[in-house]
Design brief:
Blueprint (H helix, E strand, L loop, with lengths): L7 H9 L5 E3 L5 H4 L12 E3 H8 L12 E5 L2 E3 L12 E5 L2 E2 L3 E2 L4 E2 L2 E4 L2 E2 L2 E2 L4 E7 L4 E2 L3 E2 L4 E6 L4 E3 L7 E2 L4 E2 L3 E2 L4 E3 L2 E2 L4 E7 L4 E11 L4 E6 L4 E7 L4 E2 L3 E2 L4 E11 L4 E2 L3 E2 L5 E7 L4 E7 L4 E11 L4 E6 L4 E7 L4 E2 L3 E2 L4 E3 L7 E2 L4 E2 L3 E2 L4 E3 L2 E2 L4 E2 L3 E2 L4 E11 L4 E2 L3 E2 L4 E7 L4 E7 L4 E11 L4 E7 L6 E5 L4 E7 L7 E3 L4 E6 L4 H8 L9 H12 L3 H15 L5 H14 L6 H20 L15 H9 L16 H30 L1
Parallel strand pairs: 1-3, 2-4, 3-5, 4-6, 5-9, 7-11, 8-12, 9-12, 10-13, 11-14, 12-15, 13-16, 14-17, 15-18, 15-19, 16-20, 17-21, 18-22, 19-22, 20-23, 21-23, 22-24, 23-25, 24-26, 24-27, 25-28, 26-29, 27-30, 28-31, 29-32, 30-32, 31-33, 32-34, 33-35, 34-36, 34-37, 35-38, 35-39, 36-40, 37-41, ...
Helix pairs in contact: 4-5, 5-6, 7-10, 8-9, 8-10
Protein name: Oxidoreductase
Organism: Trebonia kvetii
Keywords: Membrane, Transmembrane, Transmembrane helix
Length: 680
């Protein structure tokens, strides 16, 4: 191209190029100079793209001591600037310009390309090699930017507006490599932004960006590698996908808005972040946040976040590994799932509000492992809190929590393993609490708690193991309290809050607090709807024996025999009644003495008034009514009286009664003694 073929604006550019000087074609009228809406873009501002191409490829003469460059302001560039496959040695700098056709830099090699505040139909820079920064700050790209497998020192799309209809991709940059920073502050993209397999040595800054692709994968950074991600205040309409992405430092989504209702808002399975992940400061998601199998070495902070995915899962951390989970005041409409997650420190959900749906739990942490504390104070959960087979190294804190799952299980701790305590003081539960097979290294405390499950089971803790079990409820639980085969070193309760129905078959303990007399503890055991088993009474008797109150122990065992009699056959019940009346089943032997004295007195008086005649006259000992009665009462023993006299009439029948009563007393005493000895 010869300089003689140039228009006046092109001639000025040709003359300025050797020195890299600016050519400013603006009119000074803000309305007329707006590349996106102005009207004063006549021939005096037109420069052909072929002129710029010629200069960049060496058509212009260099000036010694100067750095040639194309520097334009306010120009209208017509035709296609096509540098495909070219090696460009000079900078291209355009501010507030209008390009009539797409710029093509495919497979090119260049230095700096800066196009600020300009209007472009599109940019294709696939596989470009840029030893500088590709800077499109504040520009409007009506079509697409293609940066697939490009390699640049830096990339700036801050305040750029890209795309038109939101359906086709706004940015495609699969395999992009950025040696420095990727700046996308306040970027506006009408269409998906695709950054899968991208590598950014520095940080990716998408703070305050707006990416709109409803119902599509709007922002894709799967398998990307970056130093850090700052996306605070970002708003994405559509799915954000980050499968197996690796981030060397932090990932900040504070104040972000991710909107993909009824589907996944953030899908980041296998995500790896060496620093903290921040979903705080009014972060909001409409759709699932899915971090399945993620590795978050520091913290995941979702304090005050609002997650909404009604009828589905709001937050998935299944099989994830993280240092700390902070979710104070988190609001989740949909399940929060940590099943199989591994947390090396604490999980903090104090004041969180969680809601499941139907059979779906509000919080599911089956098989999770938490080395530190699980903070659930003040938690409000509409749906089950499922902590089945969870392992917590320190404490679970549920003070003042409000859990509701009417007619079903509200809190499930089945086979949980807790190194220290589980505190439930002041907790309110509508539904049941299940902790069968749980092992609590310290205290399981229900002081001041309220549990309401109507005719169902309020607390199911069969085979529970705890150092201390405190059942001082604020009021008697509505429903059965099942402690069958549980084991606690100390059980602490309050008669005022004893459950109306209590199952304690197989319950074992070393101490009961407070120390109540056997009479009150028998009232406790009598609340068992199936009170025909001996184990609870034997355990209570053993407790009284251990604390040096054998009389209380005997009272318990006597009550046990009377209660167990109810479940026997009629014949056995009759025999039991005889033992009860006569000797109190061996635990009240004074009754046998009383019966003996009573029968002895009755017989002695009767036979003293009406002595029986001798069996053989002249060959009988002297009659003694007391000894004669005693001889009739004592079987086997022969005092020489009962065989020497022959009573008749009513006295004869009395003698038969005394003989039978004697045998009955001896038999019941022997049976009672054998029973007592076998219990020891």
């Amino acid at each position: 191209m010869a300089p003689t073929d140039l228009s006046e604006p092109e001639r000025l550019l040709w003359q300025a190029f050797p020195r890299g000087a600016w050519i400013d074609l603006r009119t000074g009228d803000p309305a007329g100079d707006d590349p996106q809406g102005g009207s004063r873009w006549g021939p005096e501002r037109v420069i052909r793209a072929e002129v710029i191409r010629a200069l960049l490829l060496g058509a212009g003469e260099a000036e010694p001591g100067q750095v040639p460059a194309v520097r334009l302001r306010g120009a209208r560039i017509t035709g296609r600037l096509d540098l495909m496959g070219a090696t460009v040695a000079h900078a291209l700098v355009c501010d507030y310009c209008r390009f009539t056709e797409m710029i093509r830099l495919v497979d090119s090699s260049a230095g700096t390309v800066r196009i600020h505040g300009s209007l472009l139909p599109g940019l294709n820079a696939a596989r470009m090699r840029l030893s500088g920064i590709l800077d499109l700050r504040g520009s409007r790209i009506e079509g697409m930017i293609k940066l697939d497998h490009a390699r640049v020192d830096g990339l700036c799309l801050s305040r750029a507006e890209i795309g038109a209809d939101g359906t086709t991709a706004a940015v495609t940059a699969s395999g992009l490599s950025v040696d420095g920073e990727f700046e996308g502050v306040a970027l506006r993209a009408e269409g998906p932004v695709l950054l899968e397999n991208a590598t950014v040595a520095g940080g990716v800054d998408l703070s305050e960006a707006r990416i709109t692709a409803p119902g599509q994968r709007a922002l894709i950074m799967s398998r990307a590698v970056m130093g850090r991600l700052d996306a605070r205040g970002i708003a994405v309409a559509g799915e954000t996908r980050m499968h197996n992405t690796r981030i060397g430092a932090s990932m900040v989504l504070a104040g972000a808005r991710l909107d993909n209702p009824g589907d996944v808002a953030l899908s980041a399975g296998g995500l790896s972040v060496a620093g903290g992940v921040f979903l705080a400061d009014n972060f909001a998601a409409n759709g699932e946040i899915r971090l399945y199998g993620a590795s978050l070495e520091a913290n995941l902070t979702a304090t005050g976040a609002a997650l909404r995915n009604p009828g589905g899962v709001a937050l998935t951390l299944d099989r994830a590994t993280l240092g700390v989970l902070r979710g104070e005041d988190l609001v989740a409409e949909g399940q929060v799932s940590l099943s199989g997650a591994r947390v090396t420190s604490d999980v903090d959900l104090r004041g969180a509000r969680l809601s499941g749906h139907g059979d779906q739990a509000a919080l599911a942490a089956d098989g999770a492992s938490i080395d530190g504390m699980l903070y659930l104070q003040g938690l409000v959960a509409d749906g089950e809190v499922r902590l089945r087979t969870i392992r917590v190294g320190q404490r679970i804190l549920l003070m003042a929590a409000r859990l509701a799952n009417p007619g079903d299980t509200a809190l499930r701790l089945s086979r949980a393993l807790v190194g220290a305590d589980v505190f439930c003081e002041g907790m309110t539960v509508t539904g049941g609490v299940r902790a069968p097979g749980a092992t609590i290294g310290g205290e399981l405390d229900f002081d001041g708690a309220r549990i309401c499950n109507g005719p169902g089971t309020a607390l199911q803790a069969r085979s529970l193991e705890a150092n201390l079990l405190s059942l001082r409820f604020a009021e008697p639980p509505e429903g059965l309290v099942d402690l069958g085969h549980a084991r606690a070193r100390i059980i602490r309760d309050d008669p005022a809050s004893w459950a109306g129905r209590l199952s304690v078959d197989g319950l074992s303990y070393d101490a009961l607090e407070p120390r109540l007399p056997a009479r009150r503890r028998l009232e406790w055991l009598a609340r068992d709807p199936d009170g025909h088993t001996p184990l609870p009474y034997e355990q209570l008797a053993a407790y009284f024996t251990a604390i040096g109150q054998p009389d209380q122990a005997r009272r318990v065992m006597y009550a046990s025999e009377r209660i167990l009699r109810r479940g026997k056959s009629p014949l056995s019940r009759a025999w039991g009644l005889v033992q009860d009346v006569t000797i109190g089943y061996g635990y009240q032997p004074w009754r046998a003495v009383a019966w003996l004295v009573l029968l002895l007195l009755a017989g002695s008086i009767t036979f003293a008034v009406q002595p029986p005649p001798p069996l053989q006259a002249g060959d009988t000992p002297h009659f003694n009514p007391v000894v004669y009665t005693l001889d009739l009462l004592l079987p086997v023993v022969d005092l020489g009286q009962k065989h020497a006299f022959n009573p008749g009439g009513a006295e004869q029948w009395l003698s038969y009664v005394l003989i039978a009563a004697g045998w009955l007393l001896v038999t019941t005493v022997a049976a009672g003694a054998a029973r007592v000895l076998s219990r020891r």
